[in-house]
């Protein structure tokens, strides 16, 4: 009888360990591909650790990434909210991002740090696939490799946000590519 209880307890332990491993794997997959949703826009950020350049010079990398993801999603929602109808939504799967500028090392008083130098030779770039849905029906689909070579020549009136070049590029894409077809 005691052997039966021991076998049963052992099986429960193995099963709970398997469930914990499966839960950890699901959490790792979600962390590897974070998803941000604002209004009618949903963006999946596919393998952000492999993006060309989303490094930060001054804050924790994960916090910086999350702030960037939320900022770009919010900007795209602002552009699309005027165009998308009630049941329509925009979904993106971002595969690569290269922020405007380039990180350069600086050497200060006993500390090495970095600063982002923004010049026109370092334009913002973003690669993604997208689809526009009306309920469950796909009404538009495509893929883009955006880059804005003229980003330094645009007017960003009173816009001192960190990701103004990338936000502007996404808004411009939406207004020129998606909005006219809707």
TrEMBL record:
Secretion signal, residue range per the UniProt entry: 1-22
One protein family per Pfam: DUF3016
Superkingdom to which the source organism belongs: Bacteria
The keyword Signal is annotated on this UniProt entry: yes
UniProt KW keywords: Signal
Name of the molecule in the record: DUF3016 domain-containing protein
Organism for this UniProt entry: Shewanella yunxiaonensis
Taxonomic classification: Bacteria, Pseudomonadati, Pseudomonadota, Gammaproteobacteria, Alteromonadales
